[in-house]
Amino acid sequence: MLRVLGRANSINVQKVMWCCAELELEVERVDIGGPFGGNREPEYLEKNPNGLVPTLEDGDFVLWESHSIVRYLAGTYGADPWFPADGRRRALDSQWMDWVLSALHPPMTAIYWALVRTPPEDRDAEALGAARDKVAALLAILDARLAATAYVTGDQPSMADIALGGYPYRWYTLPLERPALKNLEAWYGRLKERPAYRDNVMLPLT
Ligand SMILES: N[C@@H](CCC(=O)N[C@@H](CS)C(=O)NCC(=O)O)C(=O)O
User: Fold this and answer.
1) Residues 93-111: what's their mean pLDDT?
2) pTM of this prediction?
């Protein structure tokens, strides 16, 4: 059976758990990181020297980096279109997955920390505003892409949607001023119809 090491409220753990649910894989999740600790213990660092979550165990195979794990699960246990058979669509999936890590995740995390984990009196309003503007500009890029297809790279969901889908939940749930992005909102609406998304991603923001 697969084991995912990492707390359920981590967006990166959620990607992996949502992927397992969509692929109907049997998986055990272990609370590690955040208030649960354990991620700086030698036993954990041997598996994931970054001391971060998630880490996947598939028998004696160990893998970290959430998007690598999603690619591995979709490629090993999934079928087209979760792991697109077409090489070009698969490359586009990879492009958007990399874009999340390099562009979208850092300012979204800054917003999350400011609004969820920082008391109001300690918030840096200027930094929060800058991160909000950055995320709005990035989501406009995604919105333009979603004008062409129902999901990120096609008309059926794929691994790119799994890497990206947790961000609109945070964007539309946190108290923020948001520009209207109708394709993004429609896509988020489609994700919310998926039980695997609701069960693994739409969790309390803590
Ligand atoms: N790029 C890594 C980032 C992993 C990461 O930053 N994980 C955070 C949670 S989202 C973490 O482990 N924080 C420390 C903790 O939970 O104690 C991935 O996608 O897996």
Assistant:
1) 98
2) 0.98
